[in-house]
Amino acid sequence: MKLYRVIFPVTDITEAVAFYSHILGQNGKRVSSGRHYFDLEGTILAIYDPIADGDNIKEKWVFHENQYIYISTDNVDGVHEKVKNSNCLYVDDTIETMPWGERLFYANDPFGNPICFVDEQTVFTG
Length: 126
Prior knowledge:
Blueprint: E1 5-9, H1 13-24, E2 29-32, E3 35-40, E4 43-48, E5 69-73, H2 76-84, E6 90-91, E7 96-97, E8 103-108, E9 114-119
Parallel strand pairs: 1-4, 5-9
Antiparallel strand pairs: 2-3, 3-4, 6-8, 7-8, 8-9
């Protein structure tokens, strides 16, 4: 089995695409009026605005605060600076090294979606 797509609910597809294009360093691809896909080395990060897509199920797309999506990067320091200078709802002040060795920081995007960015050199998979 393979994880191939993760969906982040948003309330403004245009704002979300601008945010993720800047943070991820790619334009991604609009696949419908309310969906925009970013290919993260084979796993799709789908930005989904149900209202813009014609679905009226906004209340169904709510993340709990502990449902983080982990994204590895070869430039965690640079991404941290981008995220700190964005309109995220929350960003860790510093990049921390966890007891299991991962170097990372946590954030909540402008729509409240929880994200963790991890230095790809320190990714721990068990």
